[in-house]
Specification:
InterPro entries: NAD(P)-bd_dom_sf, SDR_fam. This is Short-chain dehydrogenase. It comes from Gluconobacter sphaericus NBRC 12467. Pfam families: adh_short_C2 (PF13561). 48% of the residues lie in helices and 4% in strands. A two-stranded parallel ribbon has the order 1-2. Helix 1 links the parallel strand 1 and strand 2. The longest helix has 22 residues.
Length: 89
């Protein structure tokens, strides 16, 4: 199980974007290569409020959460517990 994301902080966004795309491509290639003997998956939630953002001002965290929420069909970002359930599944 691999983890990819949607981007990164402003000071490292390009590295995070490249890294996340690399994970996506690696998972796709491994899934084709290893099928049907094994499954390869990645969890790739969009922005999620985690301790990673603890040093960001609360107003900025809220603004980021709202910005991402507007791009998601559920109109909200996932909670940490919801993302964890995907790994357990």
């Amino acid at each position: 199980m691999f983890t990819a994301g949607a981007g990164g902080r402003l000071d490292n966004a390009s590295g995070a974007i490249v890294g996340n795309d690399a994970i996506r491509l690696m998972v796709e290639g491994l899934a084709v290569e290893l099928a049907p003997r094994a499954r390869v998956n990645a969890v790739a939630p969009t922005w999620t409020e985690t301790p990673l953002w603890k040093n960001m001002p609360a107003a900025d965290v809220q603004a980021t959460k709202e910005r991402f929420s507007n791009t998601i069909p559920f109109k909200r970002t996932a909670e940490i517990e919801e993302v964890a359930q995907v790994y357990i599944f």
